[in-house]
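hiii, so i know i said id send this last week but things got crazy w the move. better late than never?? heres the sequnce for the chain we talked about at the cafe, plus the structure i predicted for it. fair warning i was half asleep when i ran it
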Amino acid sequence: MPADVHPSAIVYPGTILGEGVKVLENAVVGKQPSLSPRSTSKRGPLAPTSIGDGTVVSTGAIVFAGSTIGARVILGDQSCVRERVAIGDDVVLGRGSLVENDTTIGPLTRIQADAYITAYSTLEDNVFIAPCVVTTNDNFMGRTERRHELIEGPTIRRGARVGGGAILCPGVEIGEDAFVGAGAVVTKDVPPRAVVVGSPARVIREVPDDELLSAD
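okay and structure toks below
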C-alpha cells in the first residue's frame, strides 16, 4: 500500500516513505534546519528523512531532515522531531511534544502531550514520559564556551517511567524500571527500580514486582 500524503502536506525531495505511511494535513517531512551561529547543534549534510511502514505523521507535525522514524509510529498533531533523531518502532509521540536533535528513542516508548526531550538524550525501549515533562542538557544555560563539550541530555533506561511535569537535569540517568513522581526535580542519577519524588528528588521505596516491565 503506497504512502498517503495529504495535498496540504509538504514532503521534501529525497524523503523515504514506507508502505502505508500517512502524512496528514499541513505536516512537513524532510525540513532542513535553520541554525543560529551560536547553536550547539552539529552542522553538515543531512541524510534524507526516512519514515517506516504504517507510521502516521499527524496534522501539523514536523520531521526534520536526517531523522529516521520506525514502523507504526504515531507522531501526534503539532509534534516536532528535529534532525538526526532515531525513533524505534511502535513509539507514540504526543500532541505538541518536541524531540530535539541527536536523540535516540527506543521501541514501544510513549511520550505524552507537550513533553520536551532535549538534544543529546537517550530513551531506551518501553519508556513512559507523562505530559509536560521537561529534560535539560546545559548546566551553563548558554554561557561560556566550555558548555559545548559538556552538553548532555538525560539517559532514561528500559522500562523507566517519568511522571507529569517532572524536570530532569543535564546528564542524569534514570535506571531501568525506575519511577519518577509527578513534579519531581531530578538532580542526580536514579537507581534501577527506585521510586523518587520531590525537589530535589529522593528515593522513597522500590517499584513493586507487579509493576516491573518483566511482569507485563
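btw The chain has a mean pLDDT of 94. thought thatd interest u
miss u guys!!
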